[in-house]
Specification:
461 residues; alpha/beta; 7-stranded mixed beta sheet; 12% strand
Length: 461
Amino acid sequence: QECLDRREREGTLRSLMPIPTSSTSSPTASPIIDFSSNDYLGFARCPEQHQRVESAYKQFMSNTYSHAQGPLLGATGSRLLSGDSNLARSLEADLARIHNRPAALLFNSGYDANLSVLSSLPYREGGEDVIIMDELVHNSLVMGVRMGRLQKENVFTFQHNNVEDLRRVLQNLMKLKPSAIKPSVLIVIESVYSMDGDIAPIKDILDLAEHAGAAVIVDEAHGLGIYGRTNTDDMILESSLDKTSHRDNVGVGGTGALAALNLEQHPALLCSVHTFGKAAGCHGAVVAGSNTFISYLVNYARPFVYSTALPPHSLVSIQQSYESMMSADGERRRKVVFRFVRLFRQEMKRGLSSFGKGCQFELLPSPSPIQAVIVPGNESCISICKDLRLADSFDVYPIRSPTVPKGKERIRIILHAHNKEEEVRALVKALLSSFRRAMVFPGSMRSYSRSKLPDPKSNCA
């Protein structure tokens, strides 16, 4: 209770909230407009996608189970016991082929996958082996390292997306560990970062790792479904609405940033982690790597060994999600998303430029559907988000310190295929209006209360 009380005093207490369908309790109120979920392509809420999944699941059940046996609702056990299936193995083979790796292994979530990989890697007892992480990697990667056998003094970070700083860390390590035994060095990055929306210099990091004899793990949680071979140009910061970035005759799209950059078989890539709870619109994750690496995980990854496997319906959902992400419909949805990205950035930059040089609000340079606007101070950030929800029906949330550095609090905005152009323009207008009021009347945002909805500060990051 003391810990909870401290969080309450500090304004960092989290709690679950009722999910509103409108911005107020009025039956005539406007429905909440989604600018916060990770459902980038809209498949999680797509009736046609639901129908595809249910049809495929019904077909699977009719082909697999006899009337006497009956269908299984759950996997009934871990993959090493009763929970394995031909469906799981077939799906893993398909995913390995799709991600251009020899093998793949399914996990119950992206968090489980990252914990499994980082906590199970072997390290020599002499203390030479090290991990180097981008300073902004996801909590699941950090916790995976903490659960592992590596000592704290052998874990290093480098400045976010800064290849030269990574080079400096690698060079310093060689000086600190001049042992005859060459240290095993593992570099951990994300392809697309969830808080800033920016993209890692993946090729430069992989090339540097290869030169240094290091291996790299890439978390593709926010790259899967968004990037692929057909829209490499969308990875470059661009504001032109007239830009045509999607290419034909280059293979299927939507399989991730590594595929977009043709890096899936880079010799320094140890594995990639692809999460299904974002653009894929379902649940689970897959790790793609070498046969040896996947076999190692089957033996030593504790979250895999001791967890009940994904049920058949989840496996069919994953199968259908990949088909949809790589289809013409998936390509159409990506085009919509990136048109909205360019529209949002163009309108927001134009609006913020009118505030003058002293403006405290800043649009971060992200080419992805994750857009972030710096709003310094937890209270200001919380209040503006509340204003946007209650007055304008926009579902946006504040990202507060200490999740992000103090002074870098932000409103995190996600653009989706299911949004509409008029909604994107209205969001920009509402944001600029809220910023303008906050600048003219700095204390005014704190007194805003027009609804019976719970304060969103209780459910923000």
